[in-house]
Amino acid sequence: MNGLDKYNQNFHDIDGRLIKPDLRIGFVLVPGFTILPLAGFIDTLRHAADESDYSQQVYCKWKILGPSMEPIPSSCGVTIPPWELYGDPTEFDYIVVVGGQTDLIRFVSKQTYEFLRKAEELRIPLVGLCVGVFVLAEAGLLKNQKCAVHPRHLNEFVESYPNIIPVIDELFVIDLNRITCAGGTAAIDLAVTILINHLGETQARKGLSHMMVDQHRENLHTPRHPYDELDHCQDPRIKDAIELMKKNLTFPFCVKDLANQLGCSQRQLERAFQKHAHVSPAKFWRQLRLKRARWYLLNTNLNITRIAFDCGFSDCAHFTNLFTQVYGESPSRFRLVRLQASQSTR
Question: Is residue 211 part of a domain?
Answer without folding.
Answer: no
